[in-house]
Amino acid sequence: MEALQETEEVEQTPEDVNSLNISDFLDDLEADVTEEEASVPSDVPGFDWSSIDTSHLPSSYKTNSRQEKELLQLADHFLEQYTHLCPDRKPLFVHPVNECGVQKFVSTTLRPTLLPFPELYYWSGCASFVCDYLIMEPLKCPITAPSSLYSPTTILKYQRGNCFDFSVLLCSLLIGAGYDAYCVHGYATLEMCSLDQTQEVCPLLRKPPEVPEEEDPNKYRIKYPLEPQSKFELQQKAKKEEETEPGQDEEKEEEVVTEVEEPRRDPLHGLRVHAWVLVLSGKRKVPETFFINPFTGSHHSTTDECFLGIESIWNHRNYWVNMQDCRQGCKDLSFDLSDSICWEIMFSESDEPSQLPTESPKKDTDDMEKGEIDMSFEMPLSWVARIKVSYREYENPFSQGKKVILYNKAKLEKWAAYANEDGLVERVTVYADSDYTEAVEVKEWFKHREDLLYMREVNKQTQLITDYFRPGHPLLLKAHSYTSLEPETGHTVEYYHTARVDGLWKRFENATEMTEYFMGREDFLHMRHIELGERDKKMQMAGIGTDANPRPIVQIKEYFHRNPEKPADEDIEERIFMVIDDIIQLTYHLEVHDTIASKVVFCRVIGREKREDEIFLSRENSVTYQPWSSEKHKNLLHLYNLLWELREEQKLLKQQVRDSEAEMLNILTVREDEEANIKLSVSMYNTAKKGQQHEATV
User: Fold this and answer.
1) Would you give the distance in Å from CA 72 to the centre of its chain?
2) Nearest 5°: CA angle at 692, between 686 and 693?
3) Do 549 and 536 form a contact (C-beta atoms < 8 A)?
4) Which segments show compositional bias classed as Basic and acidic residues (predicted)?
5) Would you give the DSSP letter of residue 10?
6) C-alpha closest to that of 3 among 327, 328, 344, 341
């Protein structure tokens, strides 16, 4: 930060110096602070920390032990040396007062704790819990560290705090979970300090980076020579570009300035105090050092431009002061805490058992008089009581019932589990404008539903709804897209095909057609398309139901993958049954050297009455084109047997189509009943929720 201030002093113009005089700066600062306090999200505005009851707190909160007093003396001596050697640096955040007005060293305010919840064994679970459970409060002055630091137990009780309170609680949980975590006192951007995420993309809407598919190298591939180019012409072209670059760059810069408005400059940029958490690599198999913003619980690289500088860091064992240049933010900082050039440690770490000053106060007094103080010191135990979070508090982290976060053209809403009767826990609404007025898309996430629904997407423009299910649904549903639960209105259903005997993974149906997609079938069938006609209008007018008046089947098309065990002229690729016209058409696969596929067409004889059990075959009603087939395929008896098999297949297919229609009707009936009677499951280990259910039934 010292380096940052020096840079500003060097680069300031006379106009900037005149505009940033002391009186104007204080007036602007007061206005900025007032403006920020009005804009910071707070569910219960105007909370008075001075009115909290501290009478029930343990004695360790109200007094200091002898070890803590010696620790404060050593810290004061370190601060004296620090201010003498670095007079231009900002004051360190070392021993603020707690909720009882007693000075406490920041390292002893950390209380490493491992809570009995599986999610809190990982940094992501700890960060999510802290940012959801606490309500953010801004610092009273954005450019100075707070004068107080309350215990994590008090912060948990009132479920609110500033960035330092967030960081201390999160760091306590991370250290308890085995991470090499540290609280950081530094500087950040306005958006990070004020929890302004309106310019960021909602994390639930971020698409994972696409991994390009690597083509298999083929050493036998022909390498065509590149088009020949003249080196002299390339050199001349490069010279011309160099001559025209300066003028073009100026024009481009002018265009950018006129088209895109520059963001409003923050007058306090680089001065805004913020606290966050540093996690060093090594412990818990952390591969790379990273930051955690306690307000959002998000992971950040140490090179993130939102972090502008670091003054100091601390954990439950020691305190380090950053001695590195922060002109370029944190991206060039080294986090090797054993490097005394980069980090000034407050208490020298020694493997030998330390003799506390309290054991020989007379000797220590003599050393202090001589100006020689042994800074090796064993950190006292934390004065904070044990951190406790009940299961009910963990399951219901939102003090106001829900949490609302605004992102760039998106709004995220969070609820606790079982807070909504339909199991809704998260909802993201995507808007077309930045004023959050015109909704475009809605995504909802559910938990503990007995119908295993876990996500729903709603397109507000087309009104298309897509439900997603976890494995285990009685109907083996994976996804269901629809605009209405009425039949024949356009439904797309996806299944967990590995659990089905027929390998069906997707089916689409509307009033006039049905398409089915298959995977992993032994007959290599991968798609079936059915065209359906209109129902008999007379029967509809008579009030006859759809079961007795089915839609007539017009045509059935089936598509097959290549079966390598069969010759191509015996392996069917496409099979078409024109049911009403009584035509069957077969198209076979191609061999590598073939260009035209073999085909067989069976037609109905014109003028001959159709009989259900009769197979009539002649040269007139069969057309074959099999140039690569053997003589047996041209035999009329072979075609007769083939036609007989196809007739039987057609009967089975017609019955399968009726079964598919019945299955779709059953799915819609079951889904309509599930939505009308939503039930939430409760784990047998959730004794609190089980007790509530029992009381409700009694």
Assistant:
1) 43
2) 90
3) yes
4) 360-369
5) H
6) 327
Nearest to 149 by CA among 36, 275, 279: 275
Predicted structure pTM score: 0.77
pLDDT at 541: 62
Cα–Cα nearest to 464, from 506, 432, 508, 420: 508
State the first-to-last Cα distance of the chain, in angstroms, to the nearest integer: 64
DSSP 552-573: PEEEEEEEE---TTS-GGGSEE
Compute the distance between CA of residue 288 and CA of residue 300 in angstroms, rounded to an integer.
11
Digit-coded pLDDT (tens) for 546-600: 666 788 999 999 999 999 998 888 889 999 999 888 888 999 888 877 778 888 8
Domains of the chain: 58-203+268-345 (3.10.620), 409-479 (no CATH), 484-677 (no CATH)
In sequence order, what DSSP letters do the residues of 46-112 get, joined into one string? Answer: S--GGGS--TTS-HHHHS--HHHHHHHHHHHHHHHHHHHH-TTSPPP----B-TTS-B--HHHH---
H/E run at residue 136: strand 135-136
More confident site: 84 or 21: 84
Tokens at residue 182, please?
């540290």
Taking a C-beta distance cutoff of 8 angstroms, is the pair 318, 301 a contact?
A: no
Q: Which two tokens stand for residue 393?
A: 């508090």
Q: Read off the pLDDT of residues 227-246 as tens digits, 9 standing for 90 and up.
A: 677 777 888 888 888 776 65
